[in-house]
Design goal:
eight-stranded antiparallel beta barrel, two-stranded antiparallel ribbon, globular, Cyclophilin, 2 domains, 3 helices, single chain, alpha+beta
Length: 214
């Protein structure tokens, strides 16, 4: 092979290597060629008690973008002003971003908002607001989770969304947040991912929660 042929071969080889490296960089080196799967983040930071973010009676909602799709929660600022405000505050602080749904019980509830991911975490504060006594936990209702030894209406950051008729068995002890106003099909899809141990069979991440007012 003469010197000219060797030079042409070297240039062509270099171009091929450049294209290959470029492709790897664009795909992030992912063997599947797609985007990397969303991951749940464990958060240890504690927040100060909430300041007023939404006023009683003010129209407000939270859009949750998850790895399974997006849904919207209309905050009930009239019947549950303190709890709705706390939920809005946590959203504004970015607290729910990259947390997951750690408990999924088919035909009952999906539960998320735990910074530790195991059902034991919270934001560093609690809010107490008596739930409406006529509250029925029907599908789509969003309420705050609490431990059995906490007073009725106590809430931190963990919340649940009712997905089935099993919610009717709950007594009005869980603070009201609001109701899913859009994307219930996404909530139901998440609800179908629960195993017999109430653990998710697939990781579901809240990629971004956004507060909308007015």
């Amino acid at each position: 092979m003469n010197d000219r042929a060797k030079l042409v071969l070297a240039v062509v080889t270099g171009l091929i290597l450049t294209v290959v490296v470029g492709v790897v960089l664009l795909t992030g080196g992912d063997d599947g060629g797609g985007e990397a799967a969303a991951e749940i983040v464990v958060k240890q930071d504690k927040l100060d008690p909430p300041t007023e973010v939404v006023a009683p009676g003010e129209a407000a909602s939270v859009i949750m973008e998850t790895s399974e799709g997006s849904f919207t929660i209309e905050l009930d600022t009239e019947r549950a002003p303190k709890t709705a405000n706390s939920f809005a505050y946590l959203t504004e602080q970015g607290f729910y971003d990259n947390l997951g749904f750690h408990r999924i019980v088919p035909d009952f509830v999906i539960q998320g908002g735990d910074p530790l991911g195991d059902g034991s975490g919270g934001p560093g504060f609690s809010v107490v607001e008596a739930p409406p006594q006529d509250l029925a936990y029907e599908p789509g209702i969003v309420a705050m989770a609490k431990s059995g030894d906490e007073a009725s209406g106590t809430s931190g950051s963990q919340f649940f969304i009712v997905t089935g008729e099993g919610g009717a068995s709950l007594t009005p002890d869980y603070a009201l947040v609001g109701k899913v106003s859009d994307g219930m099909d996404v909530v139901d899809a998440i609800g179908a991912l629960g195993g017999p141990d109430e653990q998710p069979t697939s990781t579901v991440v809240i990629e971004k929660a956004t507060l909308e007012q007015g």
